[in-house]
Amino acid sequence: MEHLFTNLAAAFTGWMITLGLSPVWADIILLLVKWIIIITIITLNIIVLIWLERKVSAFFQERLGPNRLGPFGIFQTIADAIKLLTKEDIVPSAADKLIFKTAPMFFIVVAVMLYTVIPLGQGMEVINLNIGLLFFISIGSLSTIALLMAGWGSDNKWSLMGAVRSVAQMISYEIPLAFSLLGVVMISGSLNLQDIVAAQDNLWFIILQPIAFITYFIAATAELNRGPFDMPEAEQELTGGAYTEYTGMRWALFFLAEYTNLVAVSALMATVFLGGWQGPWLPSWLWIIIKTYGVILVFFWVKWTFPRIRMDQLMSFSWKVLVPVSLGNILLTGAGIYFCKWMGWC
Amino acid sequence: MFEFSAFSLYDAAFLAIGGVTILGALGVVLFRNIIYSALSLVFTMLGVAAIYFQLNAGFLGAIQILVYAGAISVLIIFAVMLLMDKDARRTNLPTPRTKAWFAGGTITMMMLASIIAAVGFTEWPKTALQGVDNSVGMLAELMLGDYVIAFEAAAILLLVAVIGAIILAKGVENR
Fold it and tell me: A24 to chain B: which residues are within 8 Å by CB?
């Protein structure tokens, strides 16, 4: 079971080479197949995720949640998806049409690109990039542009307000986000995510880097625009922020991209802090799924427990609390590594 | 020069990336709507990052995306949106003054000449391609070892610039 997917990939490449393709082209086709599989999994997984979030939020608010279609209302999301697909596609007449239409596509492309470097199992990643962690952070920073495009293109004051808020928030929280991951990089001595997983052979980094885990979790919540930091959407004051003017499938693409980002960030947290695909008994690709879903449930838990905080509090929290704390964590980690080497323990 | 007989996938990828970069750069200059210009700038930055990736300088590429495409372009768009005129479609018009055309043309020609001279007169080592495995480590050794004073001086300079910008924007409180 452990090598099921790696063996399948090897067999597929071998089969293509017997068909007379050169190894380079076989690799390129394998890459395309990997992408298609990942996009399919993302799309199918969101159905489960939305149902799960609605059920979890219902549990927190002592409601039943979706319960009409199928057992435990599990077909509710599918019905919603069909509804969204058949809805009229409205483009506001004052909107900047090109920007309005490309914004959701840009957002989803950026979200899917995050999966390039995440190790989904032993030897299972799209590309084993040397600077995987940095690549993840830098690609993640691009989603601000998509939100800005959506906010600007809609030509609507709420959209623009939401976009401005999201950009201010995401640029501020990127700094503690990157800084909190630096502690892990210092200990493992590599930016390659497979190396980071291998470095957690004996001890998960959540134990060595608890402060980094907490600051990363908070910063990631803000980067994902999730509650309690969902200022860019803030239904009660902005009627939906950057997504206000979007309907039907275009809106659904934003929704899909948000969940895609959520899964990617959860998978990264599982990889960097929770030992990645390592675990006893079960195959590695099952472990990463279990751990990712564990982190996602914590994200749900936080969202449905805390009320939204004010914009100025949000910004001052990033600059006055998270940035100094994550900088202090780097200092502490450096001192710790130096001390460890001085004592001859590592 | 370019040999079509040895036209490989690598060259095709370079042509595609270079095409996107140049088109993006042209878009920055030629679009009449400054928001479009700013978004073209993002594509140019992404193209430059892709070229870095192709040259095996992944670290530089990722930093290029993080700093230029992800942060600086966004700040430019941000500033443009906040300072914008009513009609967005006529915000980046070519200047009507001939003097400006002459000045711009002269500077462009000088830049072009210096780039051509720099590329033409440099002796490029013609050894077999050898990818650097650990470019991050090498960069770290250079920046935090050999050139650490210049590196730190640049950091302090940037800090001073940031503080100066804040004081210019908010003014000094007289007590």
Answer: 9
CATH number of the structural domain B1-104: 1.20.120.1200
Span A117-155, pLDDT tens digits: 888 888 778 888 888 888 999 898 888 888 888 888 888
> Where in chain A are the domains?
1-86, 92-342
List CB contacts (< 8 A) between B136 and chain A: 130-131, 191
Q: Is the dihedral of CA B11, B14, B20, B23 positive or negative?
A: negative
DSSP lists the bridge partners of residue A121 as A124
Rounded to whole angstroms, what are the CA distances from A68 to A65, A74, A77, A294, B37? Answer: 9, 9, 11, 27, 50
Between residues A173 and B89, the one the model is more confident about: A173
CA pair distance A99, A107, nearest whole angstrom: 12
Q: Tell me, yes or no, if A22 comes closer than 8 A to chain B by beta carbon.
A: no
Answer yes or no: do A134 and B78 touch at CB < 8 A.
no
> What ipTM is given for this predicted complex?
0.81
pLDDT digits (tens, 9 = 90+) for A34-79: 889 888 988 888 888 988 888 888 888 888 888 888 788 888 888 8
Q: How far apart are the first and last CA of chain B?
A: 67
The half-sphere exposure of B30 on its side-chain side, counting CA atoms within 13 A, is 6
Say which residue the tokens 């805390």 belong to. Answer: A306
Element spanning B147, H or E: none
Whether the full predicted model's pTM is greater than 0.95, yes or no, is no
Can the peptide bond before residue A104 be classed as cis, meaning omega within 30 degrees of 0? no
Contact of B6 with B129, CB cutoff 8 Å:
no
